Amino acid sequence: MPRASSRARASTRCDRASGTSRRRRLQRARARRRDVPGATETRDDDDDDDDDDARRPCVVYDVSRALTAYDDVWAWQRGFVHAALRQSTDRWRDVAILCAHPPTVTLGAGSVEAHVKFNLDAPPDGFEVRRCERGGEATYHGPGQLVLYPILNLGADGRARDLRAYTSALEEVALRAMIELGCDASKCHRIDGLTGAWCDGHKLAAVGVRARRWITYHGVALNVCPDLSHFAVVVPCGIDDRPVGSVAQILRGEEGVVSSAFAARVPETRAPMSTRERDELTRRAADAVIRAFADVFHVDVDRRSRAPTPREIDALDLA
């Protein structure tokens, strides 16, 4: 696949990685995870000026500074997919959406009611429930979690028509973002037989995808600083014996939560994060996720801090 792109882009484009300390963290992470299936090599920016024109363009709609209803983002994704399926060429730009949702439980194609801890006809106050076409089990989305929804053409030249490899690549995006945010690279990992990205045995990111004629939608959710007690409403991804965690929880040295033992959750040993601290960590996480996405998928990101317009969705008119 093509490698990296030029750093000389318009100010609206993704802020490229800079700073020796961040590069060194990523270099250490690569060295420790070279034996991880699906991992791809990241090169320093100074090595990639000769491949500037090879990256595929990608528009990222970053609406993560506010909460966006799941139904709205779901409709945007399906609209982009339908528009892509109507194209007579694969030269349209890739698209991704980065967002945060109000409290929402989504039920994937593999979900079973036993993994939902409430009456589906009477969800907890403030929670929405949606059945969707993605793969996987029940998942919680909510404030403090970032969700990346790429709409990519896996049938385009140079890409593998392989959903397992695609899922692994999304996990790699989460792992790189976690490491950039300060999680110990030696403790960031995958678990054989389970999807997602983990740190020190805690699941920090969940992946669930769908594709139509190799056009992807749905994606990866990274727990940055959510209220972990909200995960009590489901058995996250059908895994009831491993803790759910977040970047904030890992950085603060706190305990995660296990679905079957929420009632006995270890209380916070430090003062809760302030709103300002949460906002700052979430902003840094959004930057880290987009940088990792650009690196792993070898795309040239045009970052737009707004929702897509109807014309952009219906006609893939992204100029």
What is the CATH class?
Alpha Beta
Question: Main beta sheet, described?
Answer: 8 strands, mixed
N-to-C span: 24 Å
Strand content: 15-25%
Query: So, the CATH homologous superfamily?
Result: Bira Bifunctional Protein, Domain 2
Task: Give the second-level CATH assignment, the architecture.
Answer: 2-Layer Sandwich
What is the radius of gyration computed over CA atoms, rounded to a whole number of angstroms? Answer: 19 Å
Polypeptide structure, described:
The chain is an alpha/beta fold and 319 residues long. The chain has one domain: BirA Bifunctional Protein, domain 2. The protein contains six helices and eleven strands. It has helices at 20-32, 70-86, 163-180, 247-251, 275-297, 310-315, and strands spanning 56-67, 94-100, 104-107, 128-131, 138-141, 145-151, 188-191, 194-199, 202-212, 215-223, 299-304. Residues 1-11 have a biased composition (Low complexity).
How are the SSEs placed, and which strands pair?
Layout: H1 20-32, E1 56-67, H2 70-86, E2 94-100, E3 104-107, E4 128-131, E5 138-141, E6 145-151, H3 163-180, E7 188-191, E8 194-199, E9 202-212, E10 215-223, H4 247-251, H5 275-297, E11 299-304, H6 310-315
Parallel strand pairs: 1-2, 1-11, 3-4
Antiparallel strand pairs: 2-6, 3-5, 6-10, 7-8, 8-9, 9-10
